[in-house]
Design a protein that fits this description.
single chain; alpha+beta; Ribosomal Protein S8, Chain: A, domain 1; Structural Genomics Hypothetical 15.5 Kd Protein In mrcA-pckA Intergenic Region, Chain A; 3 domains; six-stranded antiparallel beta sheet; four-stranded antiparallel beta sheet; 7 helices; globular
């Protein structure tokens, strides 16, 4: 399949970058007949990868992030004539205990502390938090660096240790439920309620590409939101539209939102 013809189907920046990455991996695979693997992809990038691989019937893929339903995964591609499993996807994992006082730390606190070390986001998989501990899935090449240099999150000292993927304990994650009403299911209206920001602040953020809907940058504030959608704002985490509860007596839309912590 002609590379340029495939790339014509991808317009946005993330689409172009991810599709080029996949095509580079595919070309290496076809040239060497050796399996190739990506860094961590979010769900939107995974959809783009699927679209690219659709053009190559002779190639199979395995997507794995350390546990079932992992959000961020690495994608292993290989010829259909060969057999591989999730055990062939290289991953590393670390765990760190947390003091009771650190219960207010959020996902973005942990991610921010890792990125502050100079790591690129694509080298970091899912971050799993629960009472008393945090677990992180990583690219193996950064494991030793993390063990030596990840010493604090906020004002709290930590001591990470290596664990195996079988020791991961994914749960539902920490979140806060928000019952609210909005004038409409526009992106700016729903995000305003979920993040506690005025629409006058959100609209410029949307136009600047700082707001994502289902991991995809959306620059139109009037984009419609539906049940199950995930909205994220740079530096402020993410909100899930858990339920649309119908109209209020005043004609507004009642929502149940899930704000991830």
């Amino acid at each position: 399949m002609d590379r340029d013809k495939i790339l014509q189907h991808f317009i946005q920046e993330t689409e172009k970058h991810t599709s080029c990455t996949m095509l580079d991996k595919i070309e290496q695979l076809l040239a060497t007949n050796k399996p190739q693997i990506t860094d961590f992809f979010d769900p939107y990038q995974q959809r783009i990868a699927d679209r690219v691989l659709h053009y190559y019937k002779e190639i199979k893929q395995i997507a794995w992030g350390g546990y079932d339903a992992a959000e961020r995964v690495r994608i292993l591609i290989f010829p259909t004539a060969r057999q591989f499993s999730i055990h062939n996807v290289p991953l590393a994992c670390v765990e760190a205990g947390l003091p009771v006082q650190a219960e207010r730390l959020t996902h973005r606190d942990f991610l921010g502390s890792l990125l502050a070390l100079g790591l690129r986001r694509e080298k970091i998989g899912d971050i799993l938090t629960a009472e008393g501990r945090v677990q992180v899935v990583l690219h193996p090449e950064v494991l030793n660096f993390i063990l030596s240099n990840w010493q604090a999150v906020g004002k709290y000292s930590i001591k990470p240790r290596a664990i195996t993927p079988t020791e991961l304990t994914p749960g539902t994650g920490r979140f806060r439920s928000i019952k609210t009403t909005v004038a409409s299911l526009r992106l700016d209206a729903v995000a305003s309620s979920g993040f506690g920001l005025s629409r006058s602040k959100l609209v410029p953020a949307i136009r600047a590409g700082q707001v994502k809907l289902n991991w995809q940058s959306v620059k139109n504030a009037s984009t419609a939101v539906k049940e199950g959608d995930i909205i994220s704002v740079a530096g402020r985490g993410r909100v899930e539209v858990e339920q649309i509860l119908g109209e209020s007596k005043k004609g507004r839309v009642r929502l149940l939102l899930k704000k991830y912590l």
